C-alpha cells in the first residue's frame, strides 16, 4: 500500500519508489496508469489500457482484482490488481500489479501439497478439479463414493492396497466444491488438521483472486446480484444510483480547467412506436440506443436513469465541441433496423453545463432533465441548454410544489367563473369554474403552470375536491338568498378520474349542500387519456347516474379524437379554440369546424366553441349551426360577485 506524501503528484517519482520496494516475487511488473488510461512502467513507452475493466473500476475509487485477462505486453494469462492513487482526497491515477495465473497456481499448489497428506478440490459429483502434480486420479472412485455419503458423515475410512486411509470432506462455503483430505491412518493424527486449514486458506486466496470464479456457480450468482444492483436490467447500462455515484467520483477528481457537461435524453415518440410496432420492438430500440452509447468514441460515463431516459457525462472543449458531440450521438442513434422494421429515431436532448463541481449529482441530473423537457417544446433545436430562464422556472416549480397545500389555508386560491353564452339570445346558459392562485411572492400564477405540477405530484386531487366543495357551497348560498343560478362546469383531470373514491366524494358533497345534480357538469380535460374509454365510461356512467352532465373539453387537440365521439357517453363537446382561431380568413378551417359541429350534432351532443374573441367569429358560428360559445368576446373569467350582478340583471 503506497502513499504519496507530497502535495504534488509525481508519477515517475512514484514509480521509482515502487521499484525500490518491489522485489519482483509477487508481481511480474508494476505500473502506474494516468487518468487518460496510459500505463507507465518507467521505461519510456506507455501503453493504453483505458478500455480495461480493471482501470475503469479503479479510477472510480475501487480496489479491484481482475478476472483472468491476457496482458498486452507478453500475451500471458494474468490477474491484475488495481488500486486508485489518492492524493489530497483526489484520484490522480491507478497503480496496477500484474501476476501470471500459472505462477499463482504453482505457488498455491506447492504450499498446499508439500507433505505426505494428499489434498484435492472436487465438485459435488466427486470430479477432481485441483490436485497435486501427478495425482490426477487420486483415489477418484473412493472420493465419488464418499461424497455421495457426505450428508451422513464427512469423515470416512477406506482400504487401498492393504493400507487403511482416513478421508475427510469439507464443503467450501458459498460453492458446490469440497476439500478432500486423504492420509494414512498413521498420518491422520500428525498434522492433517493443519493441512486442512492450509488448504482452506489457499482456496480462499484462489477464490478471492477470481481464478476459479467462472466455475463456481454461487460466486457467479453473487456477482450477478451486484450487477443487478448497479445495472439496468434491460440495457445493462449503469442505473441511476450507479450513474450518480460514478459521476460524482469523476467530477471530484477532475482538473479545474476541465469543462464537463451532463446530458439527459429520451427517444421522441417512443410511446407511438410502442403502440404501432409493439413493446418488444420498443425494448429492442432502447437496447439498441444503449449499445450505441457504449460504442461512443470519446470519454464518457453513461447510464439509463429512467424509463427510456438516458444520461451521459463527458468533457467538452467549447460549445462547438458540445455541438459536434451531440450531433455524433444523434447520428449514431438515428436509425433502428432489424431486417424487417426500419424506424427513424430522434432524440429530445437536455444539456447542463457543470460550473460547480460541488453540486450534487442528483441536482445536475434534475437540471439536465428540465432542459430535456424544454427541448420537447423547441422541435427545431438539436438540444436545449439549461439557462437562467429555465433556472427561474425550475425555482418557481419548487416554490409551487412547496406552497400549494398551504395556499388553501392562506386563502390565496380563489374561483372565477367564465360564462358560456347563447349566441342567438346572448344570455348566459352556464358557467365554468376556473381556479386562480395569487401567490404571496410570485403574484398570480397561471393554472397552465401549477395544474401540470399538481398532476405530477398528486396535489390535483386536493385541488379538485376543493373546487367541487367550493362550487357547491356557492350554489347553496345563492339558493338560500334566492339569487338566480345557472349550472356550473368543473374540470376533472386523468389523475382524479382514477380515484376510487371520486364518485362517493361527489355524492356526499351534493347531499351535504343539498344541490340538484343537474346544476353540475364535469369536463374531462384534454390532459385526461380519454382513449382509456373503458375506465372513462365507467366513471361517466356513475356520474350520469347521479344526474350530472359530462363534457369533453378541448376537443380536437391532443388526446381528443373523432373516435371518442362514438365511444364515450357524454353530453357536450367543447371544441378547442385552435380550431376556430382563423375561421375568418381560412376556408379550410371553416369547413373543418363545420364538419366537427355537424358530426357532434349527429350524435346529439351539445356543442360549445371555446376561445371566441370577436363578433366576426360569432357571425360565422351562427351560420355553422353552433349555438353556445365561451370566450372574451362576451366575458372574461369573473368573480362570483360580478357573476351574480350579471345574472340578476
What's the layout of helices and strands?
Layout lengths: L10 H11 L7 E6 L3 E3 L5 E3 L4 H6 L5 E2 L3 E2 L6 E11 L2 E11 H12 L5 E5 L5 E3 L9 H9 L6 E6 L2 E9 L6 E7 L7 H17 L8 H14 L9 H13 L6 E9 L2 H8 L1 H16 L5 E7 L2 E8 L2 H14 L2 E3 L4 E3 L2 E8 L6 H17 L6 E2 L2 H22 L3 E10 L5 E12 L3 E3 L1 H11 L2 H21 L7 E5 L1 H4 L4 H11 L7 E5 L8 H13 L3 E7 L7 H5 L4 E4 L11 H16 L3 E5 L4 H9 L4 E3 L9 H9 L1
Parallel strand pairs: 18-19, 21-23, 23-24, 24-25, 25-26, 26-27, 27-28
Antiparallel strand pairs: 1-2, 1-7, 2-3, 4-6, 5-6, 6-7, 8-9, 8-12, 10-11, 11-12, 13-15, 13-18, 14-15, 16-17, 20-21, 20-28, 21-22
Helix pairs in contact: 3-5, 8-9, 12-13, 14-16
Fourth-tier CATH superfamily name of the largest domain: EAL domain
Count of helix runs:
21
Helix content: 25-40%
Largest sheet: 8 strands, mixed, barrel
What is the terminal separation in angstroms? 91 Å
How many β-strand stretches?
Answer: 28
Structural class: alpha+beta
What do we call the CATH topology of the largest domain? TIM Barrel
Mean pLDDT: 82
**How much beta, percentage-wise?**
15-25%
Principal-axes geometry comes out as elongated
What is the class of the largest domain in the CATH system?
Alpha Beta
Please indicate the count of domains: 4
CATH architecture of the largest domain: Alpha-Beta Barrel
Please give the order of strands in the largest beta sheet: 20-21-23-24-25-26-27-28
Low-confidence stretches: 1-6, 188-220
Rounded radius of gyration (Å) = 37 Å
